[in-house]
Fold each of these.
Amino acid sequence: MAIRDYIRERFFPHIWCPGCGHGMVLNGLLRAIEKIGLDKNEIVMVSGIGCSARIAGYVDFHTMHTIHGRALAFAAGIKMSRPELKLIVPMGDGDALAIGGNHFCNCHEQPCLWNDRRPVFSFIRLWDDEYNITIFKHRPCF
C-alpha cells in the first residue's frame, strides 16, 4: 500500500503549530507501517487528549480517541477482545506521565499486553515539553 492509503486526506493540511515535530512522527510511523506491509484494517490506534493524540485523526486505521490519560487502559481492553489486531498508542506528556502515569506504570501488569516478556503493542511517547493547547503550561518534570 502507498502512504496515501493510510491517511485521511480530507483532514490535511494538519493543524499542528509551525515547527512542531508531530507531523514528522506521523510521517515516520506511516513509512514504517508501509515498509512492514501491514494492512490498515489490522491496525488500531488508540489515543488520548492533546496535540499528540491528534495523530489518530489523520490516519485511516481503526481509531479510538479516549479520555485523557486512559489510552493504555482502552488499548488493553482492545487487545483482550481482539488479540489479532496490531495496537499503536501515541501519547504526549500528559497522557503518558501526568494524568496517565498510573496506567503507564501499571501496563506491565496486563498480561494481554505482553507475550513472552515482549510488548504486543507500540507505545509512542511524543515529548511535548509543554501543554500548548492549554496556553503553554509546563509539563510535569519526569
Amino acid sequence: MVYEEERQSFLGEAGLSLRERSFSEETAREIDRAVRSIVGTAFERAVALLTEQRDVLETAAAELLEKETLNEPDLQRLREALKAQASLRAHPASESAQAVVGTGQTETAPDLPVPM
C-alpha cells in the first residue's frame, strides 16, 4: 500500500490563498519594496549587459538565423569574442588591435602605429 501526502500548490488552491497573513501590512509593503528593488536592479543589469554586448548578441543572432543551431565551437568563438571585448574595455589606451566579433581575428586600427 502506498501512502501519499497531500501537497499544497505554491499558490494555494486555484491560485488563491484565503488564509490570513501572519505578517502586518507594513511588513508586506517592505517585502514588496525589497522585491521591486531586486527585480529592478536585475532588469537594469540585464539591459546594460545586453546593450554592452550588443554586437556579440547580433553576431550570435545572425549565426542562429543562418545555421539554426550553434555548436560548441561556435559558442566558444563567441565566448572568446566576449573576453576580447572585456579586455579592450579594461585596457582601451594600451590596445592597438580590436577584436572582430565572432571571427577570432583582430583588426588593427588604421590611425595607430602597429607594434613590431
Amino acid sequence: MAWKGGNRKGGSIETLIGQGTTVTGDINFSGGLHLVGRVEGNLSGADASSRLHVSEEGNVVGEIRVATVMVSGAVEGDIHASEQLILGAEARVQGNVYYHTLEMAPGAQVNGKLVHRPRNAEPLALEHRGGRLQVGEDETVIDR
C-alpha cells in the first residue's frame, strides 16, 4: 500500500526511525514520520499536517495522536487519527481506533472499537480515576 499524499505539498517524510532502533519515551513531531523500528511511548503530531507511517516492520507500544496515520505494522494502544487512518493488509492493532476517514485493506486486524469522530472534534481526554485510566466518555478502562 503506497503512502497517499507523498507527492502533494507537505507530503514528504522528514523523520525516519530505522529498523533495529528502539525509542523509549514519548515523541512529539511535525511533518512526516516513517517508523521501521520500535517506539515504546506515545506518538503525537504537532499539527493537522502531521503524518505517521508505521511500516510492516514497525511497532508502536503506546498511544498515537496524529492527523493522518498509515499502519502496515503493529500497534498496541489507541490510535486517534483526526483526518485519515489507512490500515494496510498486514496491520495489527490492539486498541481502540478513533478516525475521521478510514481505509482498511483486507487482512488488516483491529482488536478494539472502531469509533468515527467528526472532523475538528475535540480530542478525547485521558482521566486517571483511583488507579484506573479512563478515555473520555468511552467505557474503556485500564487498571493500573
